[in-house]
Amino acid sequence: MIELIPAIDIIDGKCVRLAKGDYDKKTEYGKTPVEIAQTFEKCGFRRLHVVDLDGAKAKHIVNENVLRAIADHTNLTIDFGGGIKSDDDIRKAFEYGATMVTIGSIAVTNPEVVYKWIDRYGAEKIIIGADVKDGVIAINGWQEKSHEELFPFIKKYTERGIDKVLCTDISRDGMMEGPAIDLYVRVLQEFPHLHLIASGGVSSNGDIHQLEKAGIPAVVFGKAYYEGRINVEQLLLNRE
Prior knowledge:
Blueprint: E1 3-11, E2 14-19, E3 22-28, H1 33-43, E4 47-52, H2 53-58, H3 64-73, E5 77-81, H4 87-95, E6 100-103, H5 105-109, H6 111-121, E7 126-133, E8 136-139, E9 144-149, H7 150-158, E10 164-169, H8 181-190, E11 195-199, H9 205-213, E12 218-221, H10 223-226, H11 232-235
Parallel strand pairs: 1-4, 1-12, 4-5, 5-6, 6-7, 7-10, 10-11, 11-12
Antiparallel strand pairs: 1-2, 2-3, 7-8, 8-9
Helix pairs in contact: 1-3
């Protein structure tokens, strides 16, 4: 059964969604991140993916107080990403309430630091973010392209014990045009034991069912929920 992970993206302490990672194409949602997280919990979700978009752009955590507020006012298992670039950032993320962290840019630019964090905190607490744009990994809030190709990038971390990767096809993110199922299937063919978290493009319950049918272990979704295109009651039906 596919793991369902709603998402909250934060800019200036507010819940937002971007289109294709473009900070100039931002939609704000009226409720506070805490209110939205509480709604997710009341619906029956257990996990939450929180992204500090200010932090991703600034290259250090910015919205740690929002993380703390969500952790203090819900019992959700939170994975937190965006701007984790230093020992202080990752310490702060765990201290302020994250159960897991999603590591993206620095996993590309300075893998030795991430290897150290894996040893210190344990591979089970770290999700590697693989954000793909034109076939290569994008970094720093998706504002920059790296030279790192997807499969070698994943391989070096699975060899270090990582078993959770969040993969986003940036061209689909926030567009609600359907997820990149073919991409995710190829990843799982190469890494069959990976707990792959699909992200980007989800537009409906049907998209999530298609991912589940394709054997994708987990999915993150945001905009489709906020725009009322996901029927939560049906999505959670028959789930314990």
